Amino acid sequence: MDDRMLGRDSTQESEPAGRAPEGSPPRVLVRRTLPTEPAVRGSASLFLAEAERQGLKAGRRMLYVGLEPASDQVAACLRVEPGADVVARRKMMTANDVPVRIATSYLRADLFGGTRLAEPEFVRPSLQSALVALGHTFGRAEESLVARPPVAFERETLELDAEEWIVQVLRASYSTADIPVHVLETICAASRHVFSIAQVSGHDEF
């Protein structure tokens, strides 16, 4: 694994703490709403906004920005060939100094390879505003959720015990012109998350 992928010598806003003893309760519990609430999605940082609502100390650290081959899932969402180079922006999120998520934004290289979205810093004021400034108006999004064992990189970065699983949330966003603009893959430490399911207003039921 490349040093950049593991986050060494990278832009840093918070450092993760050490691993909790095996078998102990989770050191932190974060709520992740599905689907993402529009007010949270429109904030400067989805995770920072969520954590602030929950009274948690949030941090994030950029792990990697650059080109990498698209997985089958990402390629299908971005409508490119599997293995084609896409722009990847990968960061780790911490809550109360505990690593809880790895979030990777995938963008088509033919659309964003020569823009500031391919530069190795956090995008200010937000990724969303940068996409709008480049002429892309949000149209729709699809979110899918999968629970699975972590790969080695995910286990190491999130400091997971051997038997812990992750939850992968994949959100594909398309413009009003039906252009695949942004795919966000969020790898959540399953034992450190509660997933709140949002209902249509006025239609919640037991």
TrEMBL record:
Domain of life: Bacteria
Keyword DNA-binding: yes
GO molecular function, one term: DNA binding
Ranges of compositional bias, category Basic and acidic residues: 1-11
Swiss-Prot/TrEMBL GO biological process terms: negative regulation of DNA-templated transcription
Start and end residues of each stretch annotated as Disordered: 1-28
UniProt keyword DNA-binding present: yes
Name of the protein described by the UniProt record: DNA-binding GntR family transcriptional regulator
Organism annotation: Nonomuraea thailandensis
Taxon lineage: Bacteria, Bacillati, Actinomycetota, Actinomycetes, Streptosporangiales
